[in-house]
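In practice, a research group might receive sequence data for several interacting partners and want a quick structural hypothesis before committing to experiments. The following worked case mirrors that situation: the sequences arrive first, and a predicted assembly follows.
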Amino acid sequence: MELTTVWFILIAVLWVGYFCLEGFDFGVGMLLPVLGRSDTERRVLINTIGPVWDGNEVWLLVAGGATFAAFPEWYATLFSGFFLPLLLILVALIVRGLAFEYRAKRDDDTWRRNWDLAIIIGSFVPALLWGVAFANILRGVPIDSEMEYAGGFFNLLTPYALLGGATTLLLFLTHGAMFLALKTDGRIRVRARALAVRLGLAAALVTVAFLGWTQARTGTVGSGLAFVLAAVALVGGLLAVRRVREGWAFLGTFAAIGLGVAGLFLALFPDVMPTSLDGGVSLTTANAAATDYTLRIMTVVAVIFTPVVLAYQAWSYWVFRKRIAVHHIPTTQSMTRL
Amino acid sequence: VDPTDIARWQFAITTVYHFLFVPITIGLSAIIAGYQTAWLRTRNEQWLRLTKFFGKLFLINFAIGVVTGIVQEFQFGMNWSDYSRFVGDIFGAPLAIEGLLAFFLESTFLGLWIFGWDRLPEKVHLACIWLVHVGTLFSAYFILAANSWMQNPVGFGYNEETGRAEMNDFAAVMFNKVQLVTFPHVVLSAYMTGAAFVVGVAIWQLRRHRRAADGVDTGDAALYRRAARTGAVIVLVSGLGVLVSGDVQGKIMTEVQPMKMAAAEGLYETEDPAAFSLLTVGSLDGSEEKFAIKVPRLLSFLATGGFSGEVKGIDELRAEYQETYGQDPGAAYYSPGDYTPVIPLTYWTFRLMMGLGLAGMAVGAWVLWATRRGRAPDGRLFPAAALALPFLPLFANSFGWIFTEVGRQPWSVFGLLTTAQSVSPSVSTGEVLTSLITLTLVYGVLAVVEVRLLLTYIAKGVEPLPEPPDDDTPEPDRPLAFAY
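A structural hypothesis for the assembly, expressed as tokens:
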């Protein structure tokens, strides 16, 4: 296999990892006002992702860095082209990350309400915009013969792109509810299960529409297979959560998101950023790639360190495997301790 | 307004801001890991209480460092897409490796450390904070390797066909001679910054304890004294290392970027031996000198290591650069044919960097002297100096970076690509202005929030250790040792 194909797959894997992992912590963030009816309940929700959200976000940073190294032209065109949506995502990720860390640091209702808002909005914005961004990559955007983005902000808001945004939004909400059903106990757990079913049905409808549309536009046999499996996993997850099999249910949305994203990359290949302009140049794994030398070095590094990273990140999930309930939350007096 | 200027302002503001938190993270993670190691070895509870106290301050600081770091990675592509296209083959690799090796390590093990006090065996828990520190060092290494390549591009070839620089020797990029001296310089100054923070906090608390009226538990005085004295030793030792590595750095800089050394002195005419001016009063553009205090031969020493070496001046270097790189570096904000950075800026940032660093070492020595053999520092000047101490290396770092980045201008990659050629052609002035204003406002608000939170927690001081968990509650039902 050509190294450019290997790196296309690796970048797809990084995005799959990012959406499968940060997907549920976006979901948890957005469900804060819905499932957390008191301050203690909201703290239960936040603490289910407390030790892991930052590690989840690193998948994005590595996906960005790997794109820079392996496909510099893709990185340059994508990041400068999608300028304003990315700025919004950046601001959202900034306030959200800080909110987790600072929210409990002051015993003050206004303070906590403000940070709650930061968590909710900071989770909502990227959950929506990542879908919009990926739909636009698949649909094709105006890229001129110099590989520069030649559109504006509103070019990015087509019905297809908005459907993509709704898809990630609803999938992440469902994924978050499944995660909470798995990781909490007591009333929150019951509520999360019920909500997961309702959200999941909406997510299934929108997802099937978006993936079907994508398949009709640029699908291949491979992407079609991945999309069908994604739909099966999502339905399986919903059936499982109704039978109180929370582990299987979470695995269902995890697989649905993973397979869905994998299918999108299969539908994209060998393009990485097709153009919608007549005289424009589509970015492909060939013309956007770094040199063979750089790709070889990066491959060696990735082969050695990716398993190590996966091992210790999985271990950290194992360490914090316990369910969290209201009685696990320390009182305000001791919460400021380390 | 030129979009390049706006993009430069954004890069300057976001990077200087980000780098206020980075050195504290690097330095403080090592110091906290040291405290916790001392606790496990001696079982002296003072060390544990210090670990937890400075651990909290560390987390408040770390959070901003992390979230502002995301901007750093994105803005190369957003604002500097032509730069990204040109250097991606070389510059992207260390960035990606930094993510894979450093960011995962830091974030995962910090999560384990924060929430793992009652979940992990003691030694494993200790290993977590050390791994966080190792992560910060990896991070520093790879990002500095990327920056060093911009200062001194090595291990690459220029591809005429694609118009891109392409890597052909990864080892040369990783072990660039600029990198080999920049890494110790930056990391040691980070240790100095972290330790200076500890000393400042400890001396302030020590002063509070001396005022009985404050009603603070004076039993903790010994603990703060210990933190202040160990911190001051680290300030001094790492400060010495910063000095030595900085000296070597100056000589390498003279070799690979002679204009930067000339700009550091504002030296227009070649001198042999060259004098170093402590301060100069001159015209605004730095081209004319009205008054100066000079140390003879010092610049020769800084640049060449001998007291009689020749140091080339700006005029001679400009002519040389014009011959090598062409008449016009192509930057709108430089006069045509000029390869000179903004002299007053390079001149003063260079002096502020050194001056603040040296002042930090002096205060560190003073702290050690004033607290010797159980002495309690008094007077007015000493506490003021000790409270200023954290800011001395902190701002020295900022000035050092401003110097080294401004001194490289008009280049983004020395000798290859100018800053004006690096900017994103597809991003409009309105967009880049929006991003500059948004990020500056957000960063400004966050700074206020962060500093107030930090001060609150510094004022709280070390806390008593939590009571051991009550044995009546079965283990799975006990409250978390730490919760957000």
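Before designing any experiment, note the following. Chain A has 13 helices and two strands. Chain A touches chain B through 81 residues (CB under 8 Å).
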